[in-house]
Amino acid sequence: MTAPSAEPYPPRGPVAVDSQQPLARRQVALVDLLDRLLGTGAVLTGSLTLGIADVDLVRIDLRALISSVGARVPSPWEGGRPL
Amino acid sequence: MNGERSAVNGEHGQNAELRYVYAVTAPLEAPLPDGVRGVADSAPYTVHQAGLQAVVSRVPEADFGEEPLRAHLEDLGWLEETARAHQAVVDALTVLTCPLPLRLATVYRDDAGVRRALEGGREEFRAALDRLAGRVEWGVKVHAQRAPEPAAAPAPAATSGREFLRRRRQEVTSRENTLEEAEQLGRTLHAALAAQAEDVRVYPAQNPQLSGTPGQNLLNAAYLVPRDRSEEFVARVERLGAHDPSVRVELTGPWAPYSFAAPDAARAQSQDGHWEGSHDRAVC
């Protein structure tokens, strides 16, 4: 216990708060995590997986998500559009 | 895991371990917290180069090589476990510094490869770390909320085709009004939050079935906010978003600034087609 860090682990990570239940703090949803981890984040040159990250990841994750919620989902953007 | 691979394992041959990189940081003044585990239950450590640090861990090539990775990413359970482990390491770093988080599954063959990447991107990383120092990201989503059903008791069956159509029209109009109201509220909320943020990124709307949140997703955005003004920002979200029955507002954070980690140009490009509103705080 010589480490200077008095922070407990896990430290405060992001939590989700809903206007419907402001007191209930939840773990962030996978879909929010993937928005960030697949769609953003810095990209390093020369990584072995650069091709995957650049081209396929988004498609792959959507396919994974879609197959997990059933084949009836027509498109990830159906019924939703930005402002 | 894989018996065949251990036979070709070696320092210079076909390494059975690759390096998974979580984040780039300025040199840390304190060691990584004990007990933090990365993807594939690995222990993160740091690689130094050019006055920068990469936080990395050793991962099996059998899982993180290009081909196996491709296959794994289609496995939602694996994807979630890996994404959460990546996030756990980045979270642990936010206690010590403001990290530049990397995209999921950034993998190198060895530490030397990681050092080369740091060397090659040194100017860009330093600029990004300076830009993001002391900042966190907050995510805000606005969902339309279904209006309460107009009549609790089922109305008597329509007596005529005309009556049926009239009712249908009424239902549709009422739904449209609610949606319009919700959209307006979303725009107001976004404008107010953007004015309080240093930078904004608007994500494509999420499918309610994927997010598990009912109602059309009208806004899915990330805001870059100085850590010491977070409280103010959160209070603003609560004030503007709560208590309106036409919307459901969800706040997530504080995130390490994922949405703002890539250089501006890259982000501007990725936003094309997702945003038609007018706000002067778009990526510059």
Structure characterization notes:
The complex is a heterodimer of chains A (83) and B (284). Chain A is of the alpha+beta class. Chain A has a domain at 15-69. Chain A is 36% helix and 13% strand. Chain A is built from 2 helices and 2 strands, in the order E-E-H-H. Chain A has a two-stranded antiparallel sheet. The model of chain A is unreliable at 1-11 and 70-83 (pLDDT under 50). Chain B is α+β, with helices and mostly antiparallel strands and 284 residues long. Chain B folds into 2 domains: 14-132, no CATH class; 135-271, Alpha-Beta Plaits. Helices cover 41% and strands 23% of the residues of chain B. Chain B is built from 10 helices and 8 strands. Chain B has helices at 3-7, 61-64, 66-72, 76-94, 111-120, 122-132, 161-196, 208-211, 230-241, 264-271; strands at 17-25, 45-49, 52-60, 100-108, 135-144, 199-202, 217-226, 247-255. In chain B, the strands form 2 sheets. In chain B, strands 2-3-1-4 form a 4-stranded antiparallel sheet, sandwiched between helices. In chain B, strand 2 and strand 3 form a beta hairpin. In chain B, helix 7 (161-196) packs antiparallel against helix 9 (230-241). Chain B is elongated and about 80 Å long. At the A-B interface, strand 1, helix 1 and helix 2 of A face strand 1, helix 3, helix 4, strand 4 and helix 5 of B. Strand 1 of chain A pairs antiparallel with strand 8 of chain B. Chain A: It is found in: Gas vesicle. Chain A: InterPro entries: Gas-vesicle_GvpA-like (IPR000638), GvpA (IPR050530).
